[in-house]
Design goal:
Blueprint lengths: L1 H27 L18 H17 L26 E2 L9 H5 L14 H13 L19 E4 L4 E3 H11 L14 E4 L1 H33 L5 H55 L3 H14 L15 E2 L6 E2 L4 E4 L4 E3 H9 L20 E4 L2
GO molecular function: zinc ion binding
Keywords: Metal-binding, Zinc, Zinc-finger
Protein name: RING-type domain-containing protein
């Protein structure tokens, strides 16, 4: 009977140990949900549930909304301005993960920070250990990039990573294990020491670049204004000075030469235009009566019945501005190019011309210089 009791106790203990190990493995490997659903998505609400929750929150917000009337009489109190550059540290873990059954029995060791959250002094020691290794000055071991201004995460094992990199590592590995030392169930804290180091490094680089630029410009100006005492270098200094002055004079001379050349071309073109215009004016001024008769015949043969300016008939009657009487036989302007217009329309067009010279007016149709003659319709 005693043997049976001992065997029973031994079997119960073995069963309890086996259950404890199984529980630890299931929780450690995150396989407590053995269905085909992704364990990281098993507890997520469905899309319809999320939409219902959003609609419920919206209705509650509308119900609790209160109207306000601002007459502008009461002066609003100035809120204290927040320091944008101030960055605070905070812990990401709300509470440590509870111990598994195997860890409670002492079958599997557990971390000291798994029982309770680390205090501020303990986090200070962890950060000090990381800073002694210059982890914040080194790039992130996951993405191999500098921390820059992105959030950094300090683990309770004193290793530092990008917050986004660590989150991606945990999502794809399925375990909460440090990528460096493989420590499990660590605690995380957002820090900004890497950002401070990056800003200090950037400011130092900007200052060194600017100071180097200023010193180089000062040294170049010193070299240009103070000749050296060595005879060979002094000779070279004045040769360079003379070459610089000569090049400047040559450039100015070439510029003046080009300007004068272009000015001569413009004057020649203007002179040629004046000569041709004078020739055309001379020809137009010497039109005889027979030539005007020939021009009138050509205009009649063309059979134009509308004024190209106002698009009204050339033989239409018009109303006077001062009286309501109908005025017939509106005068028509016959041009030397055989085009015809209303005399009033042509006079209005000439009044809007930018050129005040009467001999420089051009026909609105063929763009040639003309002389006009008033004829009755």
């Amino acid at each position: 009977l005693m043997m049976n009791k001992k065997q029973l106790q031994t079997s119960e203990k073995a069963t309890l140990v086996a259950v404890a190990y199984q529980d630890h493995l299931l929780k450690d490997l995150a396989i407590n949900n053995l269905s085909l659903v992704d364990p990281f998505k098993a507890n997520r609400p469905s899309l319809s549930q999320r939409l219902k929750e959003q609609e419920h929150r919206r209705k509650v917000a509308i119900k609790n909304a209160k109207s306000t009337i601002d007459t502008g009489i009461k002066r609003k109190k100035a809120l204290p301005q927040k320091d944008v550059n101030k960055q605070s540290e905070y812990v990401l873990d709300p509470k440590p993960r509870p111990l598994t059954l195997a860890q409670k029995f002492g079958l599997i060791p557990h971390n000291k920070d798994q029982k309770k959250l680390l205090t501020e002094s303990e986090w200070g020691e962890v950060k000090k250990t990381s800073m002694l290794r210059d982890d914040f000055k080194s790039p992130c071991v996951i993405c191999k990039d500098d921390f820059r201004v992105a959030d950094q995460v300090l683990l309770s094992c004193s290793h530092v990573f990008h917050r986004a990199c660590l989150k991606a590592f945990e999502r794809f590995s399925g375990q909460k294990t440090c990528p460096m030392c493989r420590r499990q169930q660590y605690q995380t804290r957002v820090v900004h020491e890497g950002t401070k180091h990056f800003k200090h490094k950037s400011a130092t680089k900007i200052q060194s670049t600017w100071r180097g630029f200023v010193v180089r410009k000062w040294y170049e100006e010193l070299r240009r204004s103070h000749p050296p005492k060595n005879p060979i270098l002094r000779k070279k200094f004045f040769e360079d000075k003379l070459a610089e002055i000569t090049d400047r004079f040559v450039a100015e001379t070439m510029g003046d030469t080009v300007d004068r050349f272009l000015q001569d071309i413009d004057q020649s073109v203007q002179s040629s235009r004046n000569i041709f215009r004078h020739f055309e004016n001379t020809q137009l001024n010497t039109l005889t009566r027979e030539q005007w008769t020939d021009i009138e015949l050509r205009a009649t043969e063309r059979g134009v019945t509308e004024c190209p300016i106002c698009l009204r008939g050339l033989a239409d009657c018009r109303h006077s501005n001062e009286t309501t009487a109908i005025v017939k036989n509106e005068p028509i302007a016959l041009l030397s190019c055989s085009h015809v217009f209303h005399a009033t329309c042509l006079n209005a067009l000439e009044s809007f011309s930018m050129d005040n010279d009467v001999t420089s007016f051009k026909c609105p149709v063929c763009r040639s210089l003309y002389r006009k003659r008033i004829v009755e319709c």
